[in-house]
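[agent] plan:
  1. take the single chain provided in the ticket
  2. run structure prediction with default settings
  3. attach structure tokens to the ticket
  4. add a short note for the reviewer (M.T.)
[agent] executing step 1
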Amino acid sequence: MFKTPLTRLVGMPIAAAVVLFAAGCASLGASKPEDAVKQRAEAYWKARAAGQVDKAYELTSPSYRKVHTFDQFKMQFGNGASIKGVSVVKVDCEAEKCTVRTKVEAAPALMGVSVGTIATHLDEIWLLEDGQWWRYQDI
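[agent] step 2 finished; step 3 output follows
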């Protein structure tokens, strides 16, 4: 039989309480929907700008991916204007829907004509499905 010092017996429950308290505080600081959607919208456009169409496709809603194959998505969004810069300007969320305003700077691909870089703003819809935010794309 061995003896455990009293301080060790008292210290273990206190240490456990501290760990649980810290975990609780961390969950209170969990990101707001706006933060999560902004991050995913930026990832979507970063992938599009880098020509990583597969990564952009993965951020579309599961319902869209059930109807449209990757090749269909690639044909629609894989080429065209060369994206020069993207920034998420604003995110407004409701319970299961966020509207994202994104500024996109692109150099349009026009044969024989150089028009430089054009900036535009896009409003996109992101939907909460199965605990994750997905970019809504018309079916």
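[agent] step 4 note for reviewer: Strands lie at 82-93, 97-107, 118-129, 132-135.
[agent] ticket updated
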